[in-house]
Amino acid sequence: MKQYRKWSLASLLVCMILWTSCDSISMKDVVVSAPQVLSFSPESGSVGSEIVITGEYLDDVVSATIGGEKVTILQKVSNERLSLKVTSNAKSGKIVLSNSIGDGVSEANFTIEYPAPAISATGMPTEVEMGNKLLLSGTHMNVISAVLFTAEGHTTGNEATILSQSENEILVKIPYVESDKASITFKYFNGTSEVETPLESAPQMVVARYEPNVTTSSFEAAKIGDIIVLSGTYLNKIDKVLLGDLECNITLQNENELKFAVPSSENYVDGDNTMALKISYFDGREVHTLTDAFVVKVPFVYFWENKKAYGQGRDVEEMSSFFSPETGLVYANSDWREKVDPISYSYQAATCSAANKPAVSESEYNSVNPYFFFSGVNAGQLQINSPAASASQLKNFYWFNNSANEYRVTGANGNCYGTPVLTFLYLDPSNSKSKALADKVKNGTLDNIDEATFPIDVDAKTCGEISIASMKTSLNTDVWANGIFTVGVEKKATVDAVILILYYNVNGSTSNVAENVKRIGLLHIKTVDFKMWNNTNAPSSSSIEFDMYWQKKDYDYSKVQ
What are the tens digits of pLDDT across the range 195-238? Predict the structure, then answer.
């Protein structure tokens, strides 16, 4: 007998070890019987009711039906208890629970009831705000599938979002309604189909819409990026500000004030763009037009204001020397190879066959935005330069404050022509025509640069009746800031000089500077901080502040009258 017991214990121990060491087997995985339904409570209920079932082998139930229709398993409490939720498709009949082995069927039938939901006499407030939460009390709230708010004078309701519900309460988010009084109806299943409680006898409540009211009625013409201010009440309810079909960026918004920026668009035309200014609110359900005549003024020229570029920048932190009148950006020296003039960097000194004579294809030439730069020369002058004018100027720009050749923007090979071809002319105020044009630039009254306002006469070598025969590929401070600066002496001064700039097409500048013009620009140099570099006379550490007007479209000689 003792030997039998020892053998049994040993065998049992071996079995337990084998059982526990196998990852794919566990007591939980073994289904030993179909479910058994011993009782359930309550015996009847409506859609949404919870039924608690007691029985055996309930842990592994995978589905449940009432009257042959599938219902929701809410919770498996234990192997002897679980709960179901009556769904709208359920029918009166047996409760059937199923697992992988078989089915367990109740002896008694569960009876489905289809009561109509109703709000109690004190089950709702008299006034609510649209968009807020609303708690409704009453009977049979758990059978509700939808809560509808129908505005006075309308026959179709808007459905609220149901946030939670129980037998006696339902919490919803009040939807959009078209007027400030609404009737509340419910949808529910009546045993045959989904029906709605009668609208005629539905309870009513005041829905505070708090519609935004803009009191601003006058709008001046604006430019892209201008901030427009709206005043009024409930402006915090505005969802969008629309200019035509363009959505504006709202920069500030509260109950009494809203600010928005005039948006940009590729569809604007040069000049006045008259558009409707509208506000959208209540989740886009309502749109109100503030004016049909909001004017967006798009200049006929690019205008870049208060720009600052540096000379060669060897000992200044910014080291940003290259300005493009096409983009309005001042580029860092470190950007020259990839963003400013990748064509020049790839060709090195072979970009031009000679000064201002491009030796690249037209597509390559046009792929580089026009740009210019200021540099200081040892003679003590600060000069503005065309990139394609000199193979020795660009090599003086560094992208790192180090004299090693590899830190030159042009690379270790040294001399390198830039790609764009430009020429410059100082508008001398002693010449009446030059002064008249310069004054327009300084006063901000230059509206356009095109073939009509700047007619080029190739034979006479004039542009807008101004002689351009003396255009230069570079201009020194002794021309455009004569008498203001002294060689070797640092000084910050107002210059107030205007320079006409011509940018040429791929054919470059010829002996006739009036040929091949692609774009026209006017540079207004306002102040210069004249600084020397490394105890030399070269003002390479100078900074220049300026405004720039630039033609938007390529010059068309055939349009010249």
Answer: 999 999 999 999 999 999 999 999 999 998 999 999 999 999 99
Sign of the alpha-carbon torsion through 489, 493, 498, 502: positive
- In the numeric block, the tokens 């629970």 are attached to 97
Measured over all CA atoms, what is the biggest interatomic distance in the chain, rounded to whole angstroms? Answer: 133
Distance CA 64, CA 83 (A): 10
Q: How far apart are CA 241 and CA 216, in angstroms?
A: 14
**Tokens standing for residue 469:** 């025969």
Burial 507-516 (b: 16+ CB within 10 A, else e): ebbeeebbbb
Nearest to 264 by CA among 249, 277, 253: 249
> Positive or negative CA dihedral for 73, 75, 78, 82?
negative
User: Number of helices (H) and strands (E), helices first, in the chain?
Assistant: 5, 41
Closest CA to 544 of 427, 305, 374, 332: 374
Distances from the Cα of 312 to the Cαs of 26, 480, 484, in angstroms? 78, 19, 21
What is the Cα–Cα distance from 415 to 397, expressed in whole angstroms? 11
Instruction: Kindly list the structural domains of the chain, giving each domain's residue range(s) and its CATH number in brackets, ordered by start.
Output: 34-113 (2.60.40.10), 118-208 (2.60.40.10), 213-298 (2.60.40.10), 303-559 (no CATH)
pLDDT of residue 29: 53
Using CA atoms, how far apart are residues 384 and 404, in angstroms rounded to an integer? 25
- The answer to whether 410 and 500 are in contact (CB under 8 A) is no
Give Rg (Cα) of the chain.
41
pLDDT tens column, 145-204: 999 999 999 999 999 999 999 989 999 999 999 999 999 999 998 888 899 999 999 999
Main-chain phi, psi angles of 333, to 5 degrees:
-55, -35
Residues in the chain: 561
Neighbours of 301 (CB within 10 A): 20
Q: What would the pLDDT profile of 268-295 be if each residue is shown by its tens digit?
A: 998 899 999 999 999 899 999 999 999 9
Per-residue pLDDT at 405 exceeds 80: no
Collect all residues with Cβ–Cβ distance below 8 Å to 50 and sequence separation of at least 6.
74, 83, 84, 85, 86
Supply the pLDDT for residue 193. Answer: 86
Alpha carbon distance 220, 508 (integer Å): 44
Q: Retrieve residue 203's tokens.
A: 């309870």
* CA nearest to 165, candidates 205, 135, 189: 135
Among 126-130, 196-200, 394-398, 463-467, which is the least confidently predicted range?
394-398
- Whether the CB-CB separation of 214 and 255 falls below 8 Å is answered with no
Strands 44-46 and 103-113: parallel
Q: Mind giving me the DSSP string for 191-232? A: SSSEEE--STT--EEEEE----EE-------B-TT-EEEEEE
- Nearest 5°: the CA angle 307, 368, 297 is 50
pLDDT digits (tens, 9 = 90+) for 335-356: 999 999 999 988 876 788 788 8
